[in-house]
Write a structure and sequence with these properties.
Elements: H1 7-26, H2 37-46, H3 48-80, H4 84-99, H5 102-113, H6 118-140, H7 145-153, H8 158-195, H9 201-210, H10 214-242, H11 246-250
Helix pairs in contact: 2-10, 3-6, 3-8, 3-9, 5-6, 5-8, 6-8, 8-9, 8-10, 9-10
């Protein structure tokens, strides 16, 4: 009898919460330092509307930035794989941009773009863009030689070869990049909100920490973790719908 997919992760989550709760009770850790699970639940029940509203802001920023990064990343990967010369010219620039610490860029984005959602979305794009480009480029260059030669023998236009052969073959790799990037996108949104705490769960963490409300900060962190897990499995579900044959090929 097969165990349902949700049983194992739920069991692991329950065990982790139980160990956490037991450690705080056994070691008598004050909620100011590390709150126990009941303290976090109580903090959420005090201000559910506030926390859910800020969760919605973080989700909107993350989703917008991730969508832009996904489209731009795949398109740039197509450009990179069309020519070795183009790849040699652009790839070092991408690596250099990716190497810049995003925490250092966040305050500058506020100066350039002002307050609001725009600098946060841009930071999400910057932090999640690179893995999508790398994974997509790797997938687009992994098409078997015999298939590419077969398409050439049919005198198919280059764009048609990309659309009907190379892109479908690259989809498993592209989704690897998307699943890595979607978790990074949440991190990017939080980094931006901490640098510019005018809204979002990152701002909740900053403001509750300054007011010594550690349970509220942990409640926001738990919501961020839930958001990250939900987005990851949403991308994984889309992958299963679009390319159900990928698992059969990988064995």
């Amino acid at each position: 009898m097969r165990v349902p997919r949700v049983v194992a992760p739920l069991t692991a989550a329950v065990v982790a919460v139980a160990l956490w709760w037991g450690a705080t009770a056994t070691l008598r850790i004050r909620p100011f330092f590390v709150p126990a699970p009941p303290d976090i639940v109580a903090a959420f029940r005090r201000q559910p509307g506030y926390l859910l509203r800020e969760l919605g802001r973080t989700f909107a920023e993350t989703a917008a930035g991730f969508a832009l990064a996904a489209v731009a990343g795949v398109l740039l990967a197509v450009v990179l794989t069309t020519s070795r010369t183009v790849e040699r010219a652009i790839l070092p620039l991408l690596i250099a941009v990716n190497a810049v610490p995003k925490v250092a860029v966040a305050p500058l984005l506020v100066v350039w773009l002002g307050f609001g959602a725009q600098p946060k979305i841009v930071l999400v794009v910057l932090i999640s863009f690179f893995p999508i480009v790398l994974a997509s480029a790797a997938g687009l260059t992994s098409t078997p030689v015999e298939l590419t030669e077969y398409v050439k023998s049919l005198d198919a236009p280059r764009w048609q070869a990309y659309l009907r052969l190379r892109l479908p073959w690259a989809l498993p790799q592209i989704f690897v990049g998307l699943k890595v990037a979607v978790s990074l996108a949440v991190i990017g949104a939080v980094v931006a909100e901490i640098s510019n705490p005018d809204g979002g769960l990152g701002a909740v963490v900053v403001l509750s920490s300054t007011s010594a409300d550690t349970p509220l900060a942990f409640a926001a962190i738990m919501l961020l973790a839930a958001l990250s897990v939900t987005l990851f499995y949403t991308v994984a579900a889309i992958e299963r719908v679009l390319i159900p044959w990928a698992r059969e090929i990988s064995g």
